[in-house]
Amino acid sequence: MKRVDLKRSLLLRITIFAFALMLCAVAVTLNEARNRIRADIQRTGSTIAQLIEAEVATSTPAFNRDLRGLELTSLAGIGGLIHFCASVEDLYVRPVVARCFGDAQAPLLLPASFMQWLVGRDATYVGRIGKYPGIKVGELVITPNFGSEAAMVWADIRNLLFITGGVLLLNVLVYLPVRRALRPTDDILQRLGRMQAGDLAVRLPPVELIELQRIGDVFNHLADRLEHTIGEQRQLASRLLDVREEERRHLARELHDELGQCLTSIQAEAAYARELADDQLPALRPCAEAIARITAHMMEVLQLILRELRPIGLEEFGLVASLEELVAARNRSSHGRCVHTLDIGPGVGAASDNLNVSIYRIVQESLTNAVKHGDADHVDVSLRVDGADLQLRIDDDGRSDPDADFSGGLGVLGMHERVRALGGSLTLTRRPERGLRVDVRLPMHAAGVSRRTVATAGFAGSAA
Ligand SMILES: Nc1ncnc2c1ncn2[C@@H]1O[C@H](COP(=O)(O)OP(=O)(O)OP(=O)(O)O)[C@@H](O)[C@H]1O
Ligand SMILES: [Mg+2]
Q: Which of 51, 102, 59 is nearest to 80 (CA)?
């Protein structure tokens, strides 16, 4: 669809229309003037010849063919009405008298030469002057007085120019209120841009133009509903995360209390069996030792699982200490196959507690994904405060499938849910060299998963 700038288009159209109208009217005026002048010369030529003949009859003696003394005074009457030049020659082609009637000067913009070109050189009346019937005493040539005619035509054209000026003035009078009515559009566009950037609190201001006001009302109504819906969605997502954390806590507690206690009992039983075997049945000793070894391994695995389920010391020691512990644990368990680094900027510790679980979980999932999917050698985590936001970045140098759309699992989905619930943004981009970059931005004041769900330290640590 072609885009239209209403103000410019209005201004342009009326201006073009005014000029086109003026050019047409000038063309019609010039054409009419041309036809009139050509017709006048022929129509009035014979009348003028008769007037001159009457003057010759009264001003020169009878039988005298000489025209000297002829002054064309008889034409003074109609000379004011018709603008022409008359010249008389006698029988011997000697000029007797030549006079132009109409003394107006041709204006600069419409010179007499232009009028002559317009009317044509053939617009001339040639007639004979006789004294007695059948006796020719001279010849009369009448041509238009182009200078005077130009002045007359110019008077008409000047009126047209005034009318055109009036139309252009009208144009300005129309343009000004339209411009004033459309002035809020810049502001509206700016507010729409803010909303597109994620500021849902933006509303369109009241405006003078009824049509714009209606659009604004509908838009504001939709924005209200959108804000409401997104608020509800966030609450729901937050609740879901709450429930998930609660489940993890519950699972960790059950595993710790049930499985942990059982494993501890098995270990004690295995120790007793080993002692018994030493005294009474040495053949049983390897079996008792194997049970004790496997139980110890299960307790280690259980501890790892509990750590994944509940961040260690997040509430007591804060986010920084928990992330340091997480990264250190990953470095220990990778045995040098993958090096994890952590870079924490100043002020991160002051972040709202509500963010801590989410940030911890996002880092946890990203570290797992980097090793699991990318087989990365290095994973760098950086967390800094940027204005009112917390900026988390996790870079790995693993393989990243160019066609991967990061769907199909629960990890990235969960990261998105957490970030959405906190009103932040998350992007996963392939790095130019190799690997994946996870970028998260969260407002520091965001209220998300409640502290209630944050795991307590020592619980997991004391497991098994
Ligand atoms: N660091 C990474 N490098 C390469 N690919 C990745 C990385 N992180 C995620 N992906 C891709 O995104 C997909 C989705 O990841 P996600 O964490 O959601 O699921 P998952 O790890 O396969 O399963 P889950 O996390 O539910 O156990 C992965 O299957 C993988 O293709
Ligand atoms: Mg995953």
A: 102
Ligand 2 centroid from CA 353, angstroms = 25
How many whole angstroms separate alpha carbon 409 and alpha carbon 420?
18
Instruction: Return the ligand 1 atom nearest residue 404 CA.
Output: 31
For the CA of 406, the nearest atom of ligand 1: 12
Contact between 180 and 133 under an 8 Å Cβ cutoff? The reply is no
Nearest to 266 by CA among 274, 281, 303, 252: 274
Burial class of residue 337 in the structure, from the number of CB atoms within 10 Å of its CB (0-12 exposed, 13-18 middle, 19+ buried): exposed
Quote the ligand 2 centre to 459 CA distance (angstroms): 25
429 lines ligand 1 (CB under 6 A): no
Per-residue pLDDT of the chain (464 residues; tens, 9 = 90+): 677 787 888 888 889 999 999 999 999 999 999 999 999 888 888 888 888 878 877 776 666 667 777 777 777 777 777 788 888 888 787 888 888 887 778 888 899 999 999 999 888 998 888 777 667 778 889 899 899 899 999 999 999 999 999 989 988 898 888 888 888 888 888 999 998 887 888 899 888 888 889 999 999 999 999 989 988 888 887 788 778 878 887 888 888 888 988 999 999 999 999 998 888 888 889 999 999 999 999 999 998 888 778 776 777 788 899 999 899 989 998 888 999 999 999 888 776 666 888 899 899 999 999 999 999 999 999 999 988 889 999 999 998 777 778 887 888 988 988 898 888 899 999 988 889 999 999 988 765 444 333 333 222 333 22
Does residue 406 line the site of ligand 1, with CB under 6 A? yes
Q: Is 374 in the pocket of ligand 1 (CB under 6 A)?
A: yes
CB 79 within 8 A of CB 101: yes
Q: Cα 338 to the chain's mean position, in Å?
A: 46
Measured from the Cα of 415, ligand 1's closest atom is 18
CA distance 400 to 341: 20
Helix (H, G, I), strand (E, B) or coil at 373: coil
Query: With contact defined as beta carbons under 8 Å apart, do 7 and 175 qualify?
Result: yes
User: What is the homologous superfamily of the domain 312-464 according to CATH?
Assistant: Histidine kinase-like ATPase, C-terminal domain (3.30.565.10)
Please state, in angstroms and rounded to a whole number, the distance separating the CA atoms of residues 121 and 110.
17
Query: Where along the chain do its domains lie?
Result: 6-180, 202-309, 312-464
